[in-house]
Amino acid sequence: MRKTARYLGAAYDRALAPVGLGSRQFSILQMLQSHGEATITNLADMIAMDRTTMASNLKPLTRQGLVTVTTSAADRRVRVAAITPEGDLRLRKALPLWRAVQAQFEEEFGAFEAAQLRASLEAVLHTGFEPWSE
Fold first, then answer.
1. CB 3.0–4.6 Å: which of 25, 66, 121, 129 could bond 21 by disulfide?
2. Quick one: pLDDT band at residue 107, thresholds 50, 70, 90?
3. What's the whole-model pTM score?
4. Is residue 32 a contact partner of residue 83, using CB atoms and an 8 Å limit?
5. Cα separation values, 80 from 10, 70, 102, 111, Å
């Protein structure tokens, strides 16, 4: 599984490179665009990543002005991430690149097989296996 994840990740990273994004950064921007602002913990849960790794992945996006991370007004211990207008623009530039590599994968692997693979991988996320639990 890890070998395949690296293999596919590299294809998406290469496709997104012209707009200065990696596949993880793309996923974060896409999640923030579709769900609006989110706490770092909730964003990590949505993407299936631990909170510490999410915080690390947000830093370069913040430095580039694509995401803001602020303290929650309701609870000063909570940090909230939101996509910026520049982040939205970068994501819109990246979407055709992502769609192209997705279409290429489906053409080479098979659309039906790709749909089955996505369904199987999604099912793994609902097994109850908790890789980040204490």
1. 25
2. very high
3. 0.89
4. yes
5. 29, 5, 30, 37
